[in-house]
Amino acid sequence: MTAKRIMIQGTMSGAGKSLLTAALCRIFHQDGMKTAPFKSQNMALNSFITEDGGEMGRAQVLQAQAAGIRPDVRMNPVLLKPSSDTGSQVIVNGKVFGNYRAAEYFRMKKDLIPQILEAYESLAAENDVIVIEGAGSPAEINLKQDDIVNMGLAKLVNAPVILAGNIDPGGVFAQLYGTVALLEKEERARIVGTVINKFRGDVKILEPGLEMLEKLTGVPVLGVVPYMHLDLDDEDSLSVRLDRKEAHRPVDIAVIRLPRLSNFTDFTPLELHPALGVRYVSSLRELGEPDLVILPGTKNTMGDLAWLRQSGLETAVLRLYEDATPVLGICGGFQMMGEEVSDPMNTEHGGTMRGMGLLPCRTHFAPEKTQVQTKAAVTADPFCGAEVSGYQIHMGQTDTRGAKAFCTLADGAADGAWKDHAYGTYIHGLFDSGEMTAKLAKWLMKRKGLEAPDLQPESHSAYQERQLDLLAQTVRQSLDMEAVYRAMEEWDG
After folding, report:
1. Which of 261-270, 276-285, 448-457 has the lowest mean pLDDT?
2. List of domains in the chain
3. Active-site hit among 25, 331, 361, 407
């Protein structure tokens, strides 16, 4: 018996589709239903490696956690990872399919429908409910003919649709009415309700507008979801973090906001530590004199190294290092910190570039991609003994012969390098377990002459669980869940 299904589409990117999908996954899970998320095509630099080495979007990982199941690449069969303004690496079923310019991918994407349907149908055969997330807006009239992620997918799997609009920037009634008006008649018939998301204020004031919207669209409003202050991994969350105003914290950490920064969720555990203030920096003016500089992952190491150099930030970071400021690089940031980065096969950028020279390493790019989960014990001072669990996802191989290893992997192999107060590693999720976070905070506070509290931070996973329960509770109270269940029953079969 195939699973029941419900699809969340939005009036635009940022409507809150990912978190509404996560909320429904948690609600159905709480109600005793075996549930899985699904997004046919995702575009994100924030990705994850599954236990069997497949790559998928972090939003579907969060949704899987909400559903109480392990992440599976079938939940996100097509992932686009932008490598430039006009091109992306295409991941299909967790593996690299190729690199395509936007126009090339647009011409061939419908050829991926068999893989998408195979992934969906296998999940549907194993679960009671599939919660499907759309992408962008279903009313992109220039793209509708070849749609595989919004109404095109809804038709393929015969899914009812809830349409969400974001009231926070204003114009939500125009968003919802305009989207419905631009759909074809059979597409409009799939919409079983609308949702107004991210509302601040008194719902009573909104009610006359809700009644008018229902008359104009012929579609019931299923609920108004309040604006929630949650810390959950989401592809759009970096922009929220950049706008966040935090109380002063004793330790200042500057994360360089590279143009193609990836896996920024690596730093969520640092943001949760009461002693650590995390800033995302994209200019010399913003850099200042932090206590630690982090060079994060990137989808284009050489291109972002060139940007770092041209912006003047490389010189500023090197000057800080000479003044004893520690520098930590993760994945692409680690590659930048070496002596040289070369790409003879034009895998990423092409050519050879001088590195920052902070570590005695050389990186060589090749078409093969490393995708693996890993556990490790840190061997670099002063973090020696910290147990970490994460994943590696990178295109290059780094020669670290002669360098001191940052950590030892579970299989005995060395990872990363360190020298003086420069550290580099390929491990994403470095801070998730809490041990590395605690040692880092203690060391940085000691360097400033501050007393470091003996604090073991909560694991990232445990924190996310509490946040997901709060999300589900709020959405359950805000939506007409009886109508949601009824729609799934009516569209079953």
Report:
1. 448-457
2. 4-232 (3.40.50.300), 245-461 (3.40.50.880)
3. 331
